[in-house]
Design brief:
718 residues; Catalase HpII,  Chain A, domain 1; 3 domains; six-stranded parallel sheet; catalase activity; iron
Length: 718
């Protein structure tokens, strides 16, 4: 039986001839879902989710008027001028002209999916939020994104990623709007325009797109040294994740939780991916940007369609809620600091599973609106100055992007709790409000709506003493340490990961034009680690700056390294090179599918290779970077299209193995990926760490899967 390979564009195969018999719209694909059909004010309608989609078999205007033609404008004769009275033309073109909305200033490029969150109940001692209760299932929508690039940029750029989760709880909507890096470039939200202006393309040329390797970024961060900790993470492998599915998430800020007894704790939120935290190599990321700019969103959608549902465990680090709001000398209000997990372990409190793709990207992923001020009882804020600026910014930006104050009535944003807000009118008002008295107190509407008490589930801010002081524009003294935690991060990485950081700094600063910017950043690195500074300076051909101060002693945090553990392999992609001799391919494919891995057969041409075996990739279309591991069942000779004029990857013709296959193997070696082979394929793969050969394809696959559980063959990069 031919396996179901993800990526089918429609719910059923099309016919070669254009269908002409009227029929109702096709249903969504099995992997797709749409927002719940609640009303604009949170009432469950009971209507099927397809009620928000197209209806009926015939083409109509927006008012439901059936149309007999949409291919020709109404004209005065076949060669005459178009008539102004063509109402269908005007409606169609006008709507097309207004299809786009302003993209997000940051996080413009992203992708989302539907899922569920199930609480463990382990948070009940610190938080009274209902969605954290044991066994409570809450629908969610999650959007992943890059920060700097435009909507049209590539996925695998070096950048921070957004990890935003909308919980549709029955107490109201809760948005946990975080990143895949636990710290941020700035401590105060008033600097947010500055860091974004510096990271965005240069305003005169609008280049480079979606990159930090340019002068304005490094000019800013080398002068504004509170950014140093985030810069170290940004130069690490964390900034080029293998996929959204293997990306950690953080709430960044410290939040205050309240339990049923009114007791408070301070916490930091963490998302831990079930498949582990894995990244791309920088060369892989660069290749992917050209080969498949949609790599991350395609990986997410394909995994869900294949049934390899991405999962993350939500956890919290819990700290006493003291007046100082510090823990082990670390200021919990400073968003440029972490608390090492060895000091405060992450305690699991629930599981997130993404199990449905969007039905419509624009209506869901593009129009979803997150806000850190969307809270539920039991979750409160702290005095983090970056968090406070976000409370203003997120709400304000929706007014421009989504056309007014009623963005919460869009289907993807509608709460799943009853809404009686006394807010009226405004652009795009879709609720039909009743009553005569949208004010309180009133008697004309019977006094409704009424205030809720704590017992009724009201949200009550936790009383907190505000320090008596004078108005100032300054930071607390505890915010002044900009270098000890970057040093902690660097020294917590494995030698291979440290090398990647060194190369990243060398690459990025090597793209800068101004020598002064490079020299200034080297002075910053000298305050983090002497070897890091020296190696980068050598790569740039610049002198190593002197630093007379003492570098702080730090205790490494092993939790910050991505290397050294084994992880599940479900949803990973393995390429199988075959030709017309397909010995062992079926057995290998079956073993991969049993492990939850997606196998893609690579052959000289597309289509059937045998009665039951179809090639999903060809030597022309395949590239090593889309596979997590490679298997060779053959040593295919050059295919008929192995011509440099037709495929430059073919290079010089070879009399033995197709040069595209040799390139696949060479790149897999270079990128430290597991490689397996049997039969004639063993003659192509060579030997060394992470290369498995044998006579039994199933045994070879099992050994490759074991290697894949460590993500890479790290010994090759040592």
């Amino acid at each position: 039986m031919e396996p179901k390979i993800p990526g089918a564009p429609g719910p059923q195969p099309p016919t070669v001839a254009e269908p002409t018999e009227p029929r109702d719209p096709l249903p969504p694909k099995p992997d797709q879902d749409a927002p719940e059909t609640v009303s604009p004010t949170g009432a469950v309608t009971g209507a099927p989710k397809t009620a928000n989609s197209q209806q009926g078999p015939f083409l109509t205007t927006a008012q439901g008027l059936r149309l007999y033609d949409t291919d020709h404008s109404l004209k005065a004769g076949a060669r005459g001028p178009t008539l102004l009275q063509d109402h269908h033309l005007r409606e169609k073109i006008t709507h097309f002209d207004h299809e786009r909305i302003p993209e997000r200033v940051v996080h413009a490029r992203g992708a989302g999916a539907h899922g569920v969150f199930v609480g463990y109940g382990t948070a009940e001692s610190v938080c009274k939020a209902g969605f954290l209760r044991k066994g409570k299932t809450t629908p969610v929508f999650v959007r992943f994104s890059t920060v700097v690039g435009s909507r049209g940029s590539a996925d695998t750029v070096r950048d921070t990623r957004g990890f935003a989760t909308k919980f549709y709880t029955d107490e109201g909507t809760f948005d946990l709007v975080g990143n895949n890096i636990p710290v941020f470039f700035i401590q105060d939200g008033i600097k947010f325009p500055d860091i974004i202006h510096a990271a965005k393309p240069h305003p005169d040329r609008e280049i480079p797109q979606a990159q930090s390797a340019h002068d304005t970024f490094w000019d800013f961060v080398s002068l504004h040294t509170e950014a140093t900790h985030h810069v170290l993470w940004h130069m690490s492998d964390r900034a080029v994740p293998r996929s959204y599915r293997t990306m950690e998430g953080f709430g960044v800020h410290t939040f205050r939780l309240v339990n049923d007894a009114g007791e408070t704790s301070l916490v930091k939120f963490h998302w831990k991916p079930a498949q582990g935290v894995h990244s791309l190599l920088w060369e892989e990321a660069q290749l992917i940007n050209g080969i498949d700019p949609d790599f991350h969103r395609r990986d997410l959608y394909d995994a869900i369609e294949a049934g390899a549902f991405p999962q993350w465990e939500l956890g919290v680090q819990v700290f006493p809620d003291t007046p100082e709001q510090t823990f082990e000398g670390i200021d919990l209000l400073d968003p440029t600091k972490i608390v090492p997990e060895e000091l405060a372990p992450v305690q699991p409190i629930g599981m997130l599973t993404l199990n449905r793709n969007p039905t419509n990207f624009f209506a869901e992923s593009e129009q979803v609106a997150f806000h850190v001020g969307h809270l539920v009882p039991g979750i409160d804020l702290t005095d983090d100055p970056l968090l406070h600026a976000r409370l203003f910014s997120y709400l304000d930006t929706q007014l421009t992007r989504l056309g007014g104050p009623n963005f919460h009535q869009l289907p993807i944003n509608r709460p799943h709790a009853p809404v009686n807000d006394m807010l009226r009118d405004g652009y795009h008002q879709t609720a039909v409000h009743g009553g005569a008295a949208p004010y309180r107190p009133n008697s004309l509407d019977g006094g409704c709506p009424f205030h809720a008490g704590v017992a009724d589930g009201a949200y009550v801010e936790m009383p907190q003493r505000v320090e008596e002081s004078v108005k100032v524009r300054e930071a607390p003294a505890s915010f002044a340490d900009h270098f000890s935690q970057p040093r902690l991060f660097f020294h917590s990485l494995s030698p291979v990961e440290q090398e990647h950081v060194i190369r990243a700094f060398t690459f990025e600063l090597g793209k800068c034009y101004e020598q002064a910017v490079k020299e200034r950043q080297l002075r910053v690195l000298a305050r983090v680690d002497a070897r890091l500074c020296s190696e980068v300076a050598t790569g740039l051909g610049l002198p190593v700056p002197e630093f007379d101060g003492e570098l702080p002693e730090v205790t490494p945090s092993p939790a910050l390294s991505q290397i050294g553990r084994r992880w599940p392999v479900e949803g990973r992609v393995v390429g199988i090179v075959a030709d017309h001799s397909v010995d062992g391919v079926e057995a290998a494919r079956a073993a991969l599918e049993e492990a939850g891995v997606v196998p893609l057969v690579i052959a000289p041409h597309g289509g059937p290779l045998t009665d039951g075996l179809v090639a999903q990739r060809t030597f022309l279309t395949a590239r090593s970077v889309e596979f997590d591991a490679l298997l060779l069942a053959a040593a295919p000779p050059p295919a008929p299209d192995a011509l440099p004029a037709r495929d430059t990857k073919a290079g010089a013709p070879s009399s033995t193995v197709d040069p595209r296959v040799a390139l696949l193997v060479e790149e897999a070696h270079r990128h430290a990926k597991a490689i397996g082979a049997w039969g004639e394929g063993a003659s192509v793969v060579g030997d060394g760490p992470g290369v498995v050969t044998g006579d039994d394809p199933t045994a070879v696959v099992q050994d490759v899967l074991t290697l894949l559980s460590e993500h890479r063959v790290w010994d090759r990069l040592a």
